[in-house]
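Table 4 source record.
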Amino acid sequence: MSRGRILETDGVRWLFDAGADSLDFLSGSEAELSSWLVERFERLPAESLGERELVDAFALRAAITRLAAGAADGVAPDPDDVDIVNLFAATPDIAPVLEGGRRQAGAGRIRPGQVLATLARDAVALFVEAASIDEADRIRRCAAGDCRLVFHDESRTGTRRWCSMSRCGNRAKVRAFRARSA
């Protein structure tokens, strides 16, 4: 499950939880990408993210971005983007590790390719779930006119409208209050 991330715009920091790790991967600047990967995947050594690994990360990020935007806007996915996500998802991901054993198999460092495979598999699961009839409209854009972030609505009622209540939701409520008071 997504843990969210802190984004900064206009000097203000706020929490954005996209509802899926693969969607959290889309937010933030290009400069923040490697630090986010190392922070999110603690066993990923920062020095393992070379130029080639970042090119791969940007390619996967761009494909998932277009697929998520298309899902939010009701547009059919581009087969090239599907192929990119499937390619990364087909590679070995991060193996789950049960703590408490005497051997360290799988508990050591992870490679950037494993991280990208994990994110791609998360995206595949998300888009497959979103394609089901009950979940078809759960991937959506923030309702604020000046925000284009995409999120997966995990709320029980399915009524989430804002990327973040502390950012766009609060701004909308303040605008509505001022309009009623005027």
